[in-house]
Amino acid sequence: MTTTQDSQASQIFKLAVVLALALLLLEVDGVCSGNGGRKGRNPKSSVNKKLLLFNGALPKLPVQISAIHNKSLSPWEITISRDSSRVPKFISEARCLKKGCVGPDGEEDLSLESAPIQHEVMVLKMVHDKVRGQRKRKREIVYQLSFQVITVGCTCIRPSVVRHD
């Protein structure tokens, strides 16, 4: 994907999470779980829970392969982390390939450092919540908002020098 497409996908994901949070915060009729869709709180529960249906599919964007990670002075490789208890289930992450940076001659220059560029993203993590008051101890799936720091690329920096006088 190109940078523009990555930005669009990121904006779509952020919008979906914000809308999901809005649904959870607003008490929308018919989405309360555990009380047959009736308005209000379940008298047997001290927490008002909402059922959230989330379609994680993003709109199809034209696929254009860009090799910016190989053209950089601080090259990186992309790996995909998978976590089935997280929304989104797949997150692309970068890993710097060199300690130094690539010089004009194509050789690694260790007078500069290759540093990761990190970004914090919102994810929904699945937690299992026991439903009280039932004989079979049925478990209900609940999603909790959390943040995850991911590496999105690498850049070339001057090393930090600490002088001891």
From TrEMBL:
Localization recorded for this chain is: Secreted
One GO cellular component, as annotated: extracellular space
Q: Does the keyword Iron apply?
A: no
Organism superkingdom: Eukaryota
Instruction: Please name the Gene3D superfamilies in this protein's record.
Output: Cystine-knot cytokines
Annotated Gene Ontology MF terms? Answer: cytokine activity
> Which keywords does UniProt give here?
Cytokine, Secreted, Signal
Please name the Pfam families in this protein's record.
IL17
Q: Where is the signal peptide?
A: 1-30
Q: Does the keyword Secreted apply?
A: yes
**What processes does the entry annotate via GO biological process terms?**
inflammatory response
Q: Which family does it belong to?
A: Belongs to the IL-17 family.
Q: What is the name of this protein?
A: Interleukin-17F-like
Organism, by scientific name, is: Clupea harengus (Atlantic herring)
